[in-house]
């Protein structure tokens, strides 16, 4: 899933303060970061509230509007 963000939204892989993988510079904007594991955890916990694809599309629209 992270590779989709990298390819489509020009994100970069990084690590947070705990050494966990994080997507940084999403849309080439330094302030936007996401942890792929949290996106998946949210989907698993709230399956009726949307999909992983919808999370990607929301972030994509946010990046486009900035």
Could you explain how this protein is built, in words?
The protein has 66 residues and is of the alpha+beta class. It has one domain. Helices cover 48% and strands 12% of the residues. Strands 1-2 form a two-stranded antiparallel sheet. The longest helix has 14 residues. The radius of gyration is 12 Å and the shape is globular. The mean pLDDT is 92.
Individual helix count: 3
Mean of all residue-level pLDDT scores? 92
The value of Rg in angstroms is: 12 Å
Poorly predicted regions: none
Number of strands: 2
Taken from the alpha-carbon principal axes, the silhouette is globular
- What is the count of distinct domains? 1
- Main beta sheet strand tally, sense and closure: 2 strands, antiparallel
Strand content: 5-15%
Helix content: 40-55%
What is the distance, rounded to the nearest whole angstrom, between the alpha carbons of the first and last residues?
Answer: 23 Å
Oligomer: single chain
Sheet/helix structural class? alpha+beta
**Secondary-structure element order, N to C:** HEEHH
> Spatial order of the strands in the main sheet?
1-2
């Amino acid at each position: 899933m992270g590779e989709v963000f990298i390819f489509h939204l020009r994100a970069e892989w990084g690590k947070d303060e705990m050494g966990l993988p994080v997507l940084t510079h999403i849309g080439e904007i330094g302030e936007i970061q996401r942890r792929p594991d949290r996106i998946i955890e949210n989907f698993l916990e709230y399956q009726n509230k949307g999909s992983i694809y919808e999370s990607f599309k929301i972030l994509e629209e946010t990046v486009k509007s900035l």
